[in-house]
Design a protein that fits this description.
About 35% of the residues lie in helices and about 20% in strands. By secondary structure, it is of the alpha/beta class. It has two domains: about 50 residues; about 190 residues, Rossmann fold. The strands form three sheets. Strands 5-4-3-9-10-12-11 form a seven-stranded mixed β-sheet, sandwiched between helices. It is globular.
């Protein structure tokens, strides 16, 4: 039967890892890069998930305090046990560019890994917008934001899409991070109707005058969001850097070619993402 998780909102620290679990987390986090290191870390991670028996854990990861639920979300499992491997190239790329007044938009924010990473390194003048459509996952995101002294992060519970109104989200109960507004083959968690807004409208409503970086992790709906955004949004709102999840098997168009046709240069390709920088001056 698919796992169903109920969020626990009691005070942070109630699920602090102890005993064997704490040792497993510590050992997995110390594992080095390389094939042998990763094999060992993944083995320890599997033992740790089993030891938790569906419970969350309260830890610091990526520079922020978070309550993480590894049983039904692969991203949370990675951040809890192996944060050293969590999109390491992408985060290193971002970290070199973060400034005190950085403006970062996180589309498909999940429980806040990227948003909190940026918030922990930017200054009080930064603005971070974390957009997440799933109510239960958004609840976790809000909880994690509140455990940190970051007044720079704002969350929105809605789906960025190609329309305003409501859309159907197809859920994967074993990995909530793989849920999508695009029909996917493994949506064993049923369907959910969520509020949707065009990305250009969301950003205009926030009064942003520029975007330094944007991350889009929307499980194959990146083309539905980006194509109308780049056609409609004023160029001053085009992100200088875009990190786009690479899922061409789900896209209905070659969004990579479209992005590059708008003057973006592909800077990096990682296992999961494409990173683009804009060559033009938009400021």
């Amino acid at each position: 039967m698919p796992h169903k998780q109920i969020n626990d909102l009691q005070a942070f620290g109630a699920h602090a890892p102890r005993g064997v679990l704490a040792q497993l987390i510590s050992a997995a986090r110390r594992a080095p890069e390389g094939w042998a290191g990763r094999r060992a870390a993944y083995f320890l991670r599997a033992l740790g998930v089993r030891a938790l028996r569906g419970r969350p854990a309260d830890v610091e990861a990526l520079g922020a305090r978070m309550r993480l639920y590894p049983a039904d979300n692969v991203s949370e499992k990675r951040m809890l046990f192996t944060p050293q491997y969590f999109d390491a190239q992408e985060l290193a790329f971002l970290e070199k560019r973060i400034t005190p007044d950085y403006i970062f938009v996180d589309v498909g924010a999940n429980v806040g890994g990227y948003s909190l990473f940026v918030a922990a390194r930017a200054g009080a003048a930064a603005r971070i917008l974390a957009i997440e459509p799933q109510p239960e996952i958004h609840e976790r995101l809000v909880y994690n934001v509140r455990q940190n002294d970051f007044a720079t992060v704002k969350t929105l519970e809605c789906a960025a899409a190609d329309c305003d109104g409501e859309v159907t989200m197809f859920l994967d109960s074993r990995n909530r991070g793989d849920s999508s507004i695009r029909i996917v083959p493994n949506h064993d968690g049923g369907r959910l109707t969520v509020r949707a807004r065009r990305l250009a409208d969301i950003l205009a409503g926030e009064g942003l005058d520029r975007i330094d970086a944007m991350k889009l992790d929307c499980e194959g709906a990146e083309d539905l969001i980006l194509e109308p955004f780049l056609r409609a949004a004023p160029k001053r709102l085009w992100p200088q850097v875009m990190i786009v999840e690479y899922m061409p098997e789900r896209w209905s168009m070659d969004i990579s070619a479209f992005i590059e046709a708008q003057g973006y240069r592909r800077t990096l390709r990682t296992r999961h993402n494409l990173i683009y920088e804009h060559d033009g001056t938009k400021r």
